[in-house]
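Task: complex structure prediction.
Instruction: return structure tokens for all chains below.
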Amino acid sequence: MSLKERINAANDEAFRRIVAADPVLVDVAPASEVIPGMRDRLILHSGPPVDWEHMCGAQRGAAIGMCLFEGWASHPQEAERMLSSGAIALEPNHHHSAVGPMAGTISRNMWVWVVRNQAFGNLAFCRQVESFQQFGDYSGDALGALVQWRDVWGPALRAAVLRMGGIPLKPLIARAMQMGDEMHNRVVASSSLFANAVAPMLADCGLPREQLLSTLYYTGNHPFLFLGLSMAAAKASVDPARGVEASTVVTAMARNGTEFGIQVSGLEGEWFTAPAPRVEGLLLPGWKEEDAGLDMGDSAITETVGWGGFVIGGAPGILRFTGGTAEQALAFSRDMRTITTGISPDYLMPALDFAGAAVGIDIRKVVRTNLVPVIDTAIAHRSAGHGIIGGGIVRPPLACFTRALERFSERYRD
Amino acid sequence: MSLKERINAANDEAFRRIVAADPVLVDVAPASEVIPGMRDRLILHSGPPVDWEHMCGAQRGAAIGMCLFEGWASHPQEAERMLSSGAIALEPNHHHSAVGPMAGTISRNMWVWVVRNQAFGNLAFCRQVESFQQFGDYSGDALGALVQWRDVWGPALRAAVLRMGGIPLKPLIARAMQMGDEMHNRVVASSSLFANAVAPMLADCGLPREQLLSTLYYTGNHPFLFLGLSMAAAKASVDPARGVEASTVVTAMARNGTEFGIQVSGLEGEWFTAPAPRVEGLLLPGWKEEDAGLDMGDSAITETVGWGGFVIGGAPGILRFTGGTAEQALAFSRDMRTITTGISPDYLMPALDFAGAAVGIDIRKVVRTNLVPVIDTAIAHRSAGHGIIGGGIVRPPLACFTRALERFSERYRD
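Output:
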């Protein structure tokens, strides 16, 4: 078999594994209970590896927030000293089967969504999504939302989910995609469907009245509720496609606000990075271009499985968040077929006459066409201490793909 | 002022009233408590007036169902005798500020959604939507769903809605339209959002456990839950535009399966009818063209206010139900601007770059252009005794509009 034939067969196998995924929410639990290697004084972060010195402002702010949340430090300056001295370890979520939105920070007492890929048995984890701490805001209000999640909403959802014996996410995501969700920054339909799915069991698992009502209001009114689930589902779906010998399919795209990094199936364990790009989009009132930090977050795991920017043509409602026109969004979704391995049989876009999502980014095709993936994303501030400031479209640096392909060519030869 | 100027000013006023509407769900109640003139042994039906002799099979079946549901008859033959003898009165919903889906039958003990237009103070009513009795199925199973609605779900929702002090529908509908609902046959997003909105109060109004759980499951899983609300909201929105002297704006489009009828603002109280058309669309497996009944239902009240077929371009998810392509759906929504008076500032279509819905059908423009409204609709069987058999697109007979315009020309002169 020629190398080209080997690669094509390997990519078909990686694609097959991704589309065969069957993600099911099986638990909501403290990170320390479920994430492998989740030790004390460890903060997991989004993107490829980065040390404190090179960490961007927003991710630093989020890490400070985790130190305060965990009680490791009693004020921000103390947290900063601990982080800069190495007293707190920093590791990528992706090294722990986890993903996190924006700064993506996860520590022991952060409760996470636990998604099991029933087709392969692997687990994946994602923290809760909110609009402040994950963007670098470590104020009391920002941390208060994490405390509520840890003490009220997380445990309530855990009780309901366990009692339901898990919630299959594939059919829910497929339905939401026909309701204009793209599963990255537009998850209003999936959030609403999920809230309806858990409501009866929440009401029937003996929760105290205050906790029940608070959780019903929370789940029924959080427009980004499902993003953590979508990310965990995507991570659980793509992980079995890691390490397929000779596959050029991308298994992670992740950003820490300093660097954009990708991982490739046939080059398991390696990162291919380049400086993080700027996001082109819309800023919330009061913010200026120069306030914006660079691209950040593990949430591009959704694009890695063919959601997000890859199905944005079916989700024009997001354009009020990212900018652009419906025609451009349709073109993005069509374009992504050029750089991918196959078409999803499950995740369909009504606006494209029910065409399936493009799945399995092939680094060869990216480099050959100079066409890089489309990612829609939120925007954080360049400095620590702020919540969300905007949203837009970002394109990964081509260099990540060319470097990966160079390395692939060294490693695999005819 | 010339007649043309008078008409234009009148139409602007009718349009202004429609878009100023502020529909709020204020109650869920037995028809006998809230619908004006809702007396014993009266069945309200969809469409323009029709007697038993001219009633189509599906509407006859639904009327038989109501006689059994109310206990007026103990078997279908007895019901049929009472109906054909005139022992049971038949009147259009539209003569009682009400609307009903498909056969549209409402009797005393049918619980209805009660929507108040807060901008004008008028009330409108619509019965619950299901997939059997309203299509003419009078079997025990079909009637069982009505009993559940009357005894379990209706009262539970009443308790929650009253305790909430009403639920504003305008913002909910506007959001749902950005999630691919068109508010006629695709109401999955609005149904889901509505279920989210009522869940906490349902859980907190002291309902017995069985009733609470049954209602949470019902509201969280009924894909047409919101249609009755959408129809009542549309009826409440358009009724203040009735009786504007010299206005050529349509205030009702309604069908009884035998005739299609329209009403016009400046010709208040009159119906302009023509034989009901066939629906072009998709049949559920097992059904053939010749099984299909003709166009039926008051649900075209949604198109009358610029929803349904008028915003179908923003709701391509419905095409699996109606047939057709996304491009055709976009063209329908653009076309409707040709025959209407203005553009909604509230109900926007992301797929058309957030263009507003076309509102206020002008019979002059319809006759001048030969372009009739686009209505998406379900299909009933031609005979009594069946549930839903399909869905599709229907165009009203042009004759309704030409007759209305002839009458208008008699009544109003320069």
